[in-house]
TrEMBL record:
Keywords, sorted A to Z: Cytoplasm, Nucleus, Oxidoreductase
GO cellular component terms given for this protein: cytoplasm; nucleus
Domain Nitroreductase: 20-194
GO function terms (MF aspect): oxidoreductase activity
Origin: domain of life: Eukaryota
Protein name: Nitroreductase domain-containing protein
InterPro entries to which the protein is assigned, alphabetical: Frm2/Hbn1, Nitroreductase, Nitroreductase-like
Main location: cytoplasm
Pfam family, one: Nitroreductase
Any one GO BP annotation for this protein: cellular response to oxidative stress
Amino acid sequence: MGSTQPEFKNPATTTLLELVKARRTYYGLKAESPISDEAIESIVQDAVLHVPSSFNTQTSRVVLLLKEEHQKLWDIAINIMESLVAAGKVPKEMFETHTKPKLNAFRAAYGTVLFFVDYDSLAAIKEKFAIYADKFDPFALESNAMSQYLVWTALCSEGFGANLQHYSPLIDEQVQKTWNIPASWKLDAQLVFGTPASEPSEKTFQPIEDRYKVFGK
Ligand SMILES: Cc1cc2nc3c(=O)[nH]c(=O)nc-3n(C[C@H](O)[C@H](O)[C@H](O)COP(=O)(O)O)c2cc1C
């Protein structure tokens, strides 16, 4: 997809773009890891440290859950959904045929990275730069998304498959309690990862011409 590859000065640029293309959504995952837990930690920590944030506010917070701790997360989601079914808020049929198998597939993976934003930490800078006050929250979320993307891409580069989930606010309270998460950390996304058990589905692309313009070439 896209234009033919030009010559880059740095071969790492080609590699980087290959990794960008190789990152996909994998739903079929196994509770196995191609790399050490320390290597996973290193990816996550590098994302926390080096992904940029507006005014270097460093608003992203990340929790890495591996193995049994990861399973605990998806047990929480399953239990909450079951209670919604019991309360008549979610149709039983839909839960049994659709939601439960999906949640069990997440549970069958190796780990989950929880991405949070600490919006409270922005109070001082919002006061200092009042003119931008309403921009800081969206900037913080954008920075968080950059971390999600980097970790997703790096994990795929190491032979993992991963998918990005959003079970907030459903699971927030239990997550906070279970892992003693500070109240100011607001959960945004959950990146589920494991060794791929199946291929990603086919991906279609809108024509690049409809989505991109260049001037001054
Ligand atoms: C901001 C964002 C939110 C997403 N949320 C979800 C989600 O809640 N559940 C899910 O299964 N996939 C989610 N996805 C995955 C997208 O559906 C997927 O990235 C897209 O279809 C392109 O496929 P690819 O990841 O294989 O390139 C999300 C992706 C992005 C970028």
